[in-house]
Structure formats: structure tokens, C-alpha cells
Fold this sequence. Notes:
Its EC number is 2.3.1.48. Residues 1-249 form the MYST-type HAT domain. By secondary structure, the chain is an alpha+beta fold. 36% of the residues lie in helices and 22% in strands. The N and C termini lie far apart (43 Å).
Amino acid sequence: NECIYICEWCLKPTKDQTCLFRHMEKCPIMHPPGNEIYRKENVSIFEIDGRKNKRYVQNLCLLSKLFLDHKTVFYDTDPFLFYVLTEFDEFGHHFVGYFSKEKESSDDFNLACILTLPQHQRKGYGRVLIELSYFLSKADNKKGHPEKPFSDLGLLSYRSYWSFAIMEVIMCRYEQSDEMTPYITVHEICDSTSIRREDVTSTLHHLKLINYYKGSFVICLTKEALDNFYKQKEKRKFRIDLRCLKYKSKDYTKY
């Protein structure tokens, strides 16, 4: 049999359709386990502890292996937190995508693995998950960054997010300032976005916004960068609303 049948609630794989229907008649959950930390309109995000909900996250990791060649974590889920994004309706919470991260990372990694199911791609959900990972880093008072090396698609996704987030901070400073040439430092951009300094500077170089002027490096906005920023801003209809995020930072070294 070339098909794998998976319960959309608990993600349990079964060998055939009959087994799946039997399982779904008695499946005990209609949403991911763990704490619901975000809800707005028909979108929810759940925080799931890899130690407390082993069966679910192991099923999640097996599902991920169907789409991610480099996915290796399966049994050892204890050190990880999983953030699962769902769309909900009268039937329950339908799995859309997720990202995982280490509970305690000495390198301040804020994302280990990310997946959006193919039927939900190009809806902005991947970018929302990346955005959430940086909001959580900010709540933890850290400058986060994803585990590397990147896949080609991963690099494009992060480069796009970094470019927009950095430009948003620069434009906000420009619009709020009365000066013709407002002042902002890379350190301030890092504090506002929780993006690591190396990623900020590499993105500024990629956007060709850094120039050498009178003995120092300055940020110079270009028409191309502005056009791309406003185009992305127009397309980004769905973003994390911080008013709907209920997250409490934890020190997992005590657990």
C-alpha cells in the first residue's frame, strides 16, 4: 500500500482507510495537546512540551519526515518545545504547520525545524511561524536565530522575513522623526526585532543599504528597497497580533 492514512487530530498513522475510520471514531482529542497561547479569528497556536506529550510530538515528527529530508529527531523529543498552528471550525482544530525549538539553547537558537503542509503554503503561515519565534525570543529577552545550515528554501524564507522586519523598524524611525536623516544603530535594530547582530548586518549588506561615508558606515535607503518593502507590506495580511498572544517565559533548567 503506497498510502499512509493519518488522523488529522492526533496525527496517528494507520495502514489503511478502515483502520483510520475506526480510530477516528474513538480519537480522544479534537485539538493539539498543550497550552493554547494564541487565538485570533480562526487561527490558534498551541505550545506543546516534548516531554509531556511524547506520543503526539513523535507522530508530528514522523509526519514531518515525509516533507523534510533533514528531519532526524523522533524519539528524543524531551529537550524540545513544539508550536503548532491550526485553523479551527465547528469540527475542531485542523493542523496547518509547526516549528520546534530547544527549551534551553546555549547558542540562543529560537527555531530547530519548521513545516507548513503543502496545501497551506503560500498563505503566509510560514512567515507567521518565523515571526512568532522572534516574538518568543523577545519575551525571553534574547537575540534569537535559527539552527543552521539552511536549506535553499529556508534561506529565502528567513532573508525575506529579516528584510521586512529590519525595513519596518527603519521606516518606523524615519516616519516618527522630525529630522531629514534620522539616526538609528544596528544595536537598536537588534533590540527592536530580537534578530541577531550578524543576521541584521548580513541582511543590510544583501539589501545594499550600507555605504561607507566620511569614515563610517551608514544606512542609505534605496528606491528598490522601499518599493519591495511597501509591496511586501501590502501582501502581508496575516500577522501575529501581540494582544492575542499569551506567553510566559520559563526557565527549564529548574525542571
